[in-house]
Amino acid sequence: MAKKVRKSKEYRKPSQFAQQPVAPMNPAAPRSEAKAQSNAMILISAGLVTSVLLFFYYHVWALGQLADLSGGQPMPDQYVFGFSEEQIQTLRSVMNEDAVAQLNYVHRSVGLFFPLLFGFFSLLTLGQWVRTRSRRWLAWAAPMLFVVVDLWSNQAIDALFVSDLDGAAVQLALVLTILRWALLIISALTIVVVGLRRFIRTFRQKYAEATQR
């Protein structure tokens, strides 16, 4: 008759429970972060390109078409360095009610959409590219002011054609128009400068990593 073999139980020491193998790092984490940055860059690039195209559509094509209704005179929005009261008076004399209504419509449509779109993607771009909080707020100042001044300027220009010409109203529209163009240029230059610095910094990092291999 065969003997039954008793299996002995194995007992592990408490120290053996403490020495558990460390779980390996998830290799998908760096990939997820890189993918998020790539998606953000795609969104930023699309937004900036759309803003540039909308700028030319608004200031060159839409406002340029109104020259046919104003005897070839440019709209007040197109004067980068301002306009005079005589120029506004000339526009008032050649623009009928349909031309004024068309200018108001341009301001309410693409004139509203462009500053909001440009301001949004400017804040998004600079928020992604500028690291420190203080510098980020400093970079955001010009785009945020541009949105406010641009929308205010549209209303001030529309007011020049709905009632008797007032010198104070002309000066207000003049100041807002000049300030709008200045803030737009400052905002665009800020994005370009920050983008170039970021490109140079990334290029140096990639070059240093390549030389160390």
TrEMBL record:
Keywords tagged on the record: Membrane, Transmembrane, Transmembrane helix
Q: Where do Basic residues bias regions lie?
A: 1-10
The protein here is known as: Uncharacterized protein
**Where does the sequence pass through the membrane?**
40-60, 112-130, 137-157, 169-196
- Tell me the segments the record calls region Disordered: 1-30
* Organism this protein belongs to: Glutamicibacter creatinolyticus
